[in-house]
Amino acid sequence: MTLSERDGKVIWHPYTQMQTSGLPVAIVRGEGARLYDEDGNEYIDAIASWWVNTHGHAHPYIAEKVAAQLKKLEHVIFAGFTHEPAVELAERLLKILPANQSRIFYSDNGSTAVEVGLKMALQYWHNRGQKRQKLIVLSNSYHGDTFGAMSASVRDLFTEPFWDLLFDVVRVDAPVEGKEEEAIAQLAGAVGRDDAAAFIFEPLLQGAGGMIMYGADPLDKMIGICREKGIPTIADEVLTGFGRTGRFFASDYLSNKPDIICMSKGLTGGTMALGATSCTGEIFDGFLSDDKRKSFFHGHSYTGNPVACAAALASLDLFEKDETWKNILGIEVQHRHFLSRITAYPRVRNARQIGTIVAFDVVNEEETSYLNELRDWMNDYCVGRRIIIRPLGNVMYLIPPYCITNEELERVYSILCEMLDEISSH
Ligand SMILES: *Cc1c(COP(=O)(O)O)cnc(C)c1O
Questions:
Q1: What gap in Å lies between CA 362 and CA 346, rounded to an integer?
Q2: Residue 24 has what pLDDT?
Q3: How many Cβ atoms are within 10 Å of 147's Cβ, its own excluded?
Q4: Would the pLDDT of 359 be above 90?
Q5: Residue 145 CA, closest ligand 1 atom number
Q6: Which residues are catalytic?
Q7: Which of 53, 105, 245, 258 could be stapled to 270 by a disulfide with Cβ–Cβ 3.0 to 4.6 Å?
Q8: Which domains are present in the chain?
Q9: Taking CB atoms and a 6 Å cutoff, what residues make up the pocket around ligand 1?
Q10: Which among 36, 44, 56 has a CA at the least distance from the CA of 401?
Q11: Is residue 98 predicted with pLDDT exceeding 60?
Q12: 111: CA distance to ligand 1 center in Å?
C-alpha cells in the first residue's frame, strides 16, 4: 500500500470533504522551495505550505539548531520555570517588534495567539472594573478556527454550524480603496460605544478573506481614533509577520502602533508550531495586582516549548542575513513584472501585490463561491503540473518561501499564464 492509501484509511484532513476528495499527495522530503512525493515527483511550493515557510523546507541551519536543543532540553513546564530559548526569543522579538511592545506571551499556533490577544484585551477592562466586552472587527476578517477567533472572523459558510454559539461583535468595513472614509467613520462610531473593548484587524492584508489589501494610511487613522478613546488595538500579524509584506511586520508601515500583536506562521520559519502574543507595558500592567484574580489565567501544556523557540531563534538568525532581505526584495520585483503580464488577461481582475504576496481574481461567469468548480479546476490544473497552490474560491495567490529561485518563480508564473490561456479559450 502507498502512503496515500494508508492515509485514506486512518486520517481525517483539515478543510476537506472526506467523501469526495481524492487521496492526498504523500510528501516524503523537502528542500528549498521544493517538495518531493512518494513517487519521486518534484513540486514547487508556491504557497509556503499554508503560508508558514520562510527560508525553505528542511533548512539545514534550523535543523541543526533544533537537533541541538532537542539533546539539551526538549520541554519544561512554563509556569514557575523558564529556559534560555524562551527568554532569548522574547528579547530578540522585542528588538524587532514596534518599540511600544514590552512583553511576550507564548502559545502554540495562530488561533491561540489570537485567543490570547482577545483575552488580554477583554480582561484588561475586567481588571479595571469596567464592563467592556464588544470587539470591533473588520469585514472579511479571518483570525483562526477556535471559538474566540471564529467569533472575530467573518460569518461565512466555514463557521455556519456554530453561528448561534459565536459571541456578537461590531463589524466595520475594511478600509479598502475607495471605502477609506466610510470605514474610518464606521470605526469612529463603533469606538464611541460604551461597551467597546478592542479593535482587532489583519494589518494591510486580509488573508483567508480573499487576499484583500488596503493601505496603511486609513488603518493608521483608525488606530489613532482607538488610541484617543483608550481602546486597545490588536494587530493579527499571524500571516503578515516575518517579512511577508516586505518589512518585518506590517505594523512597521504604521505610525500608530498596535497595543497587542499576534504572531505565528513564519515565527519558526515554518518549522514548528509556535504562537506568540506581544503587548505594551500598559496592557501588562493592567494585570499586576495583589489580587490573584487579576492574573492572566491562560496557558497551554506546550507554552514556550524550547525546541519550537530554538527553531524561531534559528529563523531570526537567517533574517539577520542580507541575503534573506535581498530575496524578499527580488520576489517583490519579479511579482511586479508578473502583475503587468497578467492584467492583459480578460478573465483577470484586481491583480494586486503586497511584498512577497501577489493575488488576482479569476472571473467566473457562473458564480464565485469557495465551493465552485473553477476553484477546484484551477487547483488541479496547477497541482497536476507540480505547482502547489491553493486558491481561495476564485482568488489565486502566491506566497512563496523567500528562498524560491528566479527560475522556480518563473516556472510558477508560466503555469499560471497557461492556465489563464486555457480559461480564456473557453
Ligand atoms: C492562519 C491565520 C490564523 C490562524 O493561525 P493557525 O495557526 O492556522 O491557527 C490567524 N490569523 C491569521 C491572519 C491567519 O492568516
A1: 9
A2: 96
A3: 15
A4: yes
A5: 9
A6: 15, 142, 236, 265
A7: 53
A8: 3-58+322-424 (3.90.1150.10), 63-319 (3.40.640.10)
A9: 109-111, 114, 142-144, 202, 207-208, 236, 238-239, 264
A10: 56
A11: yes
A12: 6
What number does the ligand 1 atom closest to the CA of 109 have?
Answer: 7
Q: Which residue has the cell 526584495?
A: 329
Each residue's pLDDT tens digit, 61-71: 999 999 999 99
Quote the DSSP letter at residue 102: E
Sheet of 357-362: strands edge to edge? 348-354, 357-362, 395-398
Query: In angstroms, how far is the first alpha carbon of the chain from the final one?
Result: 39
For ligand 1, atom 6, the nearest C-alpha belongs to 110
Buried-exposed string 397-412: b where 16+ CB fall within 10 A, e elsewhere: bbbbbbbbeeebbebb
Q: How far is CA 421 from the centre of its chain?
A: 31
CA of 290 to the centre of ligand 1 (A): 35
What is the structure's pLDDT at 163? Answer: 98
Report residue 273 as a C-alpha cell: 508550531
The structure's pTM equals 0.97
- Provide the H-helix boundaries in 192-215: none
The fraction of the chain above a pLDDT of 70, given in percent, is 98
- Cα 105 to chain center, whole Å? 18
Summarised one tens digit per residue, pLDDT across range 36-78 is: 999 999 999 999 999 999 999 999 999 999 999 999 999 999 9
Residue 356, C-alpha cell as written in the block? 512577497
Retrieve residue 50's grid coordinates. 499554508
User: Which residue do the cell numbers 510528501 mark?
Assistant: 27
Location of C-alpha cell 464565485: 368
Cα angle value 280/118/85 (rounded, 5°): 55
